[in-house]
Amino acid sequence: MTISQLSRKNIQALTPYQSARRLGGKGDVWLNANEYATSPDLNLQNRTFNRYPEAQPQQLLERYAAYAGLKAENVLVSRGGDESIELIIRAFCEADDKVLYCPPTYGMYAVSAETCGIQSKTVALTADFQLNLAEIEQNLEQVKVIFVCSPNNPTGNVVKREDLLTLLEMTRDRAIVVVDEAYIEFCPQATMANELANYPHLAIIRTLSKAFALAGLRCGFTLANPELINILQKVIAPYPIPLPVSDLACQALAQNRLVEMQQRVAEVIEYRTWLINQLLLLPIVAQIFASEANYILVKFQNGTNVFKTLWDQGIILRDQSKALGLSNCIRITIGSEQENRRVVDAIRAISAK
Questions:
Q1: Which end of the chain is less packed: N or C, by CB atoms within 10 Å?
Q2: In angstroms, rounded to a whole number, what is the distance separating the alpha carbons of residues 237 and 232?
């Protein structure tokens, strides 16, 4: 028997999540992973490397709780938001339970469920990328966890608050509703964190990877009521947060650094507006979807040609054409001013042919 045959059957059939780094490419303009264009200038302060770190670094919990307007007991720190997805599935799903998500959306919900041996149900978003609540209600049997991304990746839109509240009422006492707020800093008024007191089955995923410009740190958070947080504490690894991660994350959450983060957000929004306005002038652009995040989703007349042409020039974007309902669509991260100009110039050159 081969090693592959010894692995679990669902793992043998699993296609790993196609992250930006896994997809590769040889470029000098990387706009395929929704990262910020430059790194904050942080320096390690705590160098106590001979001891295991705190399981949940208290200072980091307190700082993020203060930033989110919550208490430390409402926060769990994890290795990026991705670990939070898997923790919730592992903690709440039995073998015959299911998770539900609404494509087109973030691919890790499906991959994490499959990795844990849990089946998925899907209910497609509506034509304007909102929840199909009637269809969700018809598909709740055996569903234990529901994932909703808002702002949604890759479409960029915010899910209507009233729809999320309806979903929370619909699932009370029967399922966990997870709202993935990885991009919430670009539209903070849309957060559901202020609803935690009303819904014990609500969990919110956050990260320092986007607006905080710390994707390399791999630091994420789950926001929830203490009972739910305590359940996740039972399944998380004993020492999940390396000391350098908590050290730098605490610095990033200091008041002066929060001001810097908000300045980055304002810059990204300014550049996003410029990029949209420039692309709208080009005849090969069929549609640009409204975005509340640090990326835009663009539908081209021939998305494959645009993606490959820019790829060959070292401009690496994210092809979304295989996602449900997104044929000829490309997701473009908002980069630096120079990177954005290179994208526009390259697409303008295609359009001129």
A1: N
A2: 10
